[in-house]
Design goal:
Helix content: 25-40%
Distance between the termini: 18 Å
Strand content: 15-25%
Number of helices: 20
Largest sheet: 8 strands, mixed
Number of strands: 15
Length: about 450
């Protein structure tokens, strides 16, 4: 007997290299699917368990068909006034006032502070988060944090692919209400499941998430280790992606007592070599389907102050109520910030997603359907994308990865950072020109089975 929905998932998503590793299909598959890692990339496979893969495992997939206009109407009751940001009711720059929470976070500790507040005010009984080292020192895995201490253990960003939504297999039986923290594709899948009233997401009542630009496979960590003469990730006893003072640094503690570190912008030298396909195809940078999304406040006036500042977008009435309540209780220090100013902090990555991703999809044999697209993109911007395409293609070569591991890291990181700044300056005019004025049209590119 044909396994209809597994056939669709395999043929339409996996064979087309569209999978974003969100984890939903495995999480709600009743054990008929599992993940297998291959060179840092985790992909679902069919298990030997009898029975059909549930239809919802295919319907939940955000990789093939993820109609943002329909999902915006479902979640917020309207379309975005600005397609660069998504639906926005308020925009802020701020940080947690509790110094321990602020310092523990990747930037301003805002997501951790909100989750702790929701727990302490009994608005939720738990929050789905990622925790590094819960069972394996170097692995992140989804957990349900039910106390302040458990939330704090989940603080910080994770820059390697982790299928958060595998936890959906247990959520149906969990007590609610729950908050949920995820990346844009993971959140989109949650919203798709909520729209079809799937029992796995019935207890999720509030959704938060970080901005997401690029992401790397776990092979980036393995490569970094090899550059230091470490042959296996099993030598790791602790892994933190953004330790220390904002903007933080990669910090890996080994069994032999050594601590390997790299400044955030120096560690980014690995992006061209280990960037994920999903990073290149996803069009959502600011996590548009959350109630609250949070990113780093990259602005000279905040960077110079150090300490950690976040840009915060509130997308729903309840989100605004929560933020204002926390401000009145002095739990969050918030500065009202015009949306244009908030977007300007990430104009480079907004362009990478809102124009770059749509250009890159033109070159894909099968492209995702997001339900909207820019009406036009300047030819100069398309040329920039061709340059990036060649850059990433060279980085993906085995010889390139071998070479980067054999160059002195004290040289590679700083040189990459200089090249990154130079490239941003060189391409700034083409990448920013017309970005704010880009018009988008709602469209439908395909019909799902």
């Amino acid at each position: 007997m044909s396994d209809q929905w597994w056939d669709h998932l395999r043929r339409d998503v996996l064979d087309c290299n569209l999978c974003t590793q969100c984890g939903s299909c495995v999480g709600i598959s009743d054990g008929t699917l599992a993940f297998r890692e291959d060179h840092g990339i985790v992909l679902p496979i069919r298990t030997e368990k009898s029975g059909q893969v549930p239809e919802a495992a295919f319907r939940a997939c955000p990789a093939l068909a993820c109609p943002y206009p329909d999902l915006n109407r479902f979640v917020f009751g309207k379309l975005p006034g600005n397609w660069l940001s998504g639906v926005t009711e308020g925009s802020f720059v701020g940080h947690a006032t509790d110094k321990s929470i602020r310092r523990a976070g990747a930037s301003g500790g805002v997501i951790s502070a909100i989750l702790i507040h929701l727990l302490e005010t009994k608005q939720i009984v738990g929050a789905v988060c990622l925790q590094v080292g819960a069972s394996v020192p170097y692995r992140a895995e989804p957990v349900i944090a039910r106390t302040k201490e458990e939330v704090m253990r989940c603080a910080q960003s994770v820059y390697s692919v982790t299928p958060v939504n595998t936890i959906l297999g247990t959520l149906e039986k969990e007590e609610g209400p729950l908050a949920y923290v995820g990346l844009p594709d993971q959140v989109a899948s949650i919203r798709k499941l909520q729209r079809i009233k799937h029992p796995a997401v019935r207890n999720i009542t509030f959704v938060l998430g970080p901005y997401m630009g690029t992401q790397m496979t776990f092979d980036a960590i393995r490569s970094f280790l090899r550059s230091h003469g470490v042959s296996s990730e099993k030598e790791i006893t602790r892994l933190r992606y953004r330790a220390g003072e904002w903007p933080g640094h990669l910090e890996i503690t080994l069994k032999d007592g050594r601590v390997l570190t790299a400044e955030k912008f120096h560690y980014n030298y690995l992006i061209p070599f280990f960037i994920t396909r999903s990073s290149l195809q996803l069009v959502d940078f600011t996590n548009e389907l959350t109630d609250i999304s949070v990113g780093d406040a990259w602005s000279p006036k905040y960077e110079s102050k150090r300490g950690g500042y976040s840009v915060i977008l509130a997308r729903s009435a309840r989100a605004m109520e929560i933020l204002e309540d926390m401000r009145s209780r002095d739990l969050l220090a918030l500065t009202d910030t015009p949306l244009d100013e908030a977007l300007a902090m990430h104009s480079h990555m907004l362009d990478f997603k809102k124009r770059g991703s749509f250009i890159r999809m033109r070159w894909m044999p099968v492209a995702p359907d997001y339900g909207y697209r820019p009406t036009s993109i300047p030819s100069a911007r398309i040329f920039i994308e061709w340059c990036l395409r060649m850059f990433f293609a060279i980085g993906a070569l085995r010889i390139s990865r071998w070479a980067i591991e054999h160059l002195p890291l004290k040289l590679v990181g700083p040189v990459f950072n200089l090249l990154r700044k130079g490239w941003k300056e060189l391409s700034k005019t083409s990448k920013r020109k017309g970005l704010r004025e880009t018009e988008f049209e709602v469209c439908s590119l395909r019909q799902s089975p």
